[in-house]
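Inverse folding, one chain.
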């Protein structure tokens, strides 16, 4: 099975997603596409990275993960691609992959630029799906672009993080992973402060652990801390927005 996932900010109302798929199929027809999301907020690299990170490991080895977020509005922009953990990744060098992938591989490749980013991406995606060696599709490149300012500051007693993503239900996903949180927490207590002096000081196993309409914090299936309201919209009811600051203190 030659499987390609797509994570884009191209939307579903227009023809853009179909054109991208068509460009890939022109190079290699024996493909199956799986859409992670095409509703990334336009140009929002941070949101695209979250969706990719939350979704790619669910797929079988050999899957090619194609990203097209903020592809047409950054100049100059090159396409990069690499292999990791039996999977393949291709997309723009705009910081999205270092945000989505915890340990980027050393060997990252770029194709010969044609002047059209989408054409370059389609050619790379088809080549990876068809099983061509990476060094036949492109050449090794140097440093990958990093968005350093999006990292959460840590100390032994505090993590200052931010709202990273808001899902369809209004659940608020923080830019701190379960692994990072539990490592700093140890056997201590904690207090999460956000919004207008709102606090949460325990982790719930599920939304239903609190009464309907009450707020909670869970460790979600994607591996992140999430602030939610049982059968409610935390984004609207708690006034939390993308990039709002959330403070976690440990005692």
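Residues assigned per position:
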């Amino acid at each position: 099975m030659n499987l390609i996932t797509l994570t884009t900010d191209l939307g579903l109302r227009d023809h853009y997603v179909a054109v991208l798929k068509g460009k890939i199929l022109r190079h290699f027809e024996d493909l199956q596409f799986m859409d992670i999301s095409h509703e990334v907020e336009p140009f929002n690299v941070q949101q695209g990275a979250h969706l990719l990170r939350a979704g790619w490991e669910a797929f079988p080895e050999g899957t090619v993960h194609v990203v097209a977020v903020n592809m047409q509005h950054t100049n100059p922009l090159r396409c990069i691609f690499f292999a990791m953990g039996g999977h393949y990744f291709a997309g723009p060098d705009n910081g999205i992959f270092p945000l989505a992938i915890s340990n980027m591989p050393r060997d990252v490749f770029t194709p010969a630029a044609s002047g059209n980013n989408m054409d370059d991406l389609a050619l790379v995606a088809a080549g990876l799906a068809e099983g061509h060696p990476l060094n036949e599709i492109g050449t090794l490149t140097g440093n990958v672009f990093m968005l350093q300012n999006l990292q959460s500051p840590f100390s032994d007693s505090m993590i200052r993080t931010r709202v990273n993503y808001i899902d369809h239900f209004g659940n608020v996903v923080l830019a701190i992973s379960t692994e990072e949180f539990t490592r700093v927490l140890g056997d201590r207590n904690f207090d999460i402060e956000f919004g207008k002096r709102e606090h949460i000081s325990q982790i719930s196993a599920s939304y239903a652990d609190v009464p309907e309409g009450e707020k909670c914090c869970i460790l979600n299936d994607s591996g992140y801390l999430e602030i939610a309201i049982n059968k409610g919209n935390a984004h609207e009811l708690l006034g939390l927005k993308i990039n709002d600051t959330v403070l976690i203190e440990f005692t």
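The longest strand covers residues 158-166. The helical segments are 16-27, 45-55, 96-100, 117-130, 134-137, 178-185, 234-237.
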